[in-house]
Amino acid sequence: MRAEILCVGTELLLGQIIDTNAAYIAGQLARAGTDVLRKQTVGDNLERIADCISGALNRSEILIITGGLGPTTDDLTREAIASYLKVELEHHAELEANLQAFFDKRGITPGATIMRQAFLPKGAQAIPNPVGTAPGVFVQTKEDKLIFAVPGVPREMKALLDGFIIPTISERESGERQIIVSRVLRAFGVGESTLAEPIEDILTTSKNPTVAPLIFGNTEVHLRLTAKARDEEEAAVLLDETEAILRARVGDYLFGRDGETLASVVIGLLRGKGSTLSLAESLTGGLAQNLICEVPGASDVFVGGIVAYSEKIKTEILGVDSKTIEAHSAVSSEVAIAMASGALEKFDSDFSLSLTGEAGPNGSSGAPVGTVWIGLAAKGSTPFTAYKREFFGDRDAIRRRAAHAALDILRRHLLALPIT
Fold first, then answer.
1. In the chain, how long is the greatest CA-to-CA distance?
2. Are 342 and 320 in contact (CB under 8 A)?
3. Angle 395-414/262-273 helices, nearest 10 degrees?
4. Hey, which CATH number is domain 262-414, 3.40.50.10170, 3.40.50.300, 3.30.365.10, 3.90.950.20?
5. Long-range contacts at 315-318 (CB < 8 A, ≥ 24 apart)
6. Distance between CA atoms of residues 26 and 39, nearest Å
7. Could you tell me the pTM of the whole model?
8. What is the pLDDT of residue 112?
9. Stronger pLDDT, 178 or 224, i.e. the higher one
10. What CATH number is given for 179-257 in this structure?
11. Where are the domains of the chain?
12. Among 94, 99, 147, 278, which is most buried by a count of CB atoms within 10 Å?
């Protein structure tokens, strides 16, 4: 069966609220084996909502609407469904009684507008809401199309979706039901087009699983693998086979899968070697340390770090020779190496990373904006090394890419992969 998602609310169109509901609904539908054809967002306008409903049901068998079920006059989803069905809203005494009991327990006298939630399109069924006041709406049309409407509050949406909608859809699926399972392979240090080129034949010809590249967070490129199968085990076999082919071609760029981050992968590698890590950051101001500390159990390997933003801290705390800064500038391979060396000694760690660079917007170091030097020091291994990177974008993008790049350099070093 095919489904569409309609998100209702002018606040979504104004960018005042980020729509997380559609992503959750789409994910749950995929797990249930239902194809999602389209997602739309519409403001609080009766005619436009009704038009979206009509268009969606011309294309699909299932429509899930989120938002517009509250008690205020701009909550128009019930009215729009009734308009599409060409029926009136009708009062449900049991819904009003439920609302009255809800507020009685809290010692609140509900206003007249609250009781708007006791009206449903004629012929519709109420979907009980265990965590809120607005009931959902369920309609099976004469054409055997299914309309579900749920509140826009994420907690309430999830309760009605998981408790009623997904089970209802699953029961009505005819024939041999297939589930849809996705896996994401995460890459860093490569552009989307560069990653796609060696696997273009897979991207264009693979049908099950399908493979699609996408940019994530301005720092990573993801390969999304999506398989249809009878069960999780069959899907895993299909995904494993395709992942193996992708890794054979672009594996050097792939650092993790699904929820794995560069930081969690690096921590796992260090933990496996029984090694520790320290950091010394200038332009990134602690961003790399924050990425590390977001990972549970990071204290197993991360011993500490220094934000050496000023020359004084670089020289007095990390022991960087002021003559080195004077001769080469703070944004240089020499200073990056000296910072990493100082952190290695200060924290007595097995590995140390350092970051120094020019994030802009106005360069003060003499280096072009986007220039970054990343130092890597390892106990018992000399000479220490620094790697130059040149990033584009605004100040925030440069700093974030630099922090991730430092972790990727260490990952590659620990796996004996080439570092260019």
1. 84
2. yes
3. 30
4. 3.90.950.20
5. 317/342, 317/346, 318/280, 318/342, 318/343, 318/346
6. 9
7. 0.72
8. 75
9. 224
10. 3.30.70.2860
11. 2-172, 179-257, 262-414
12. 278
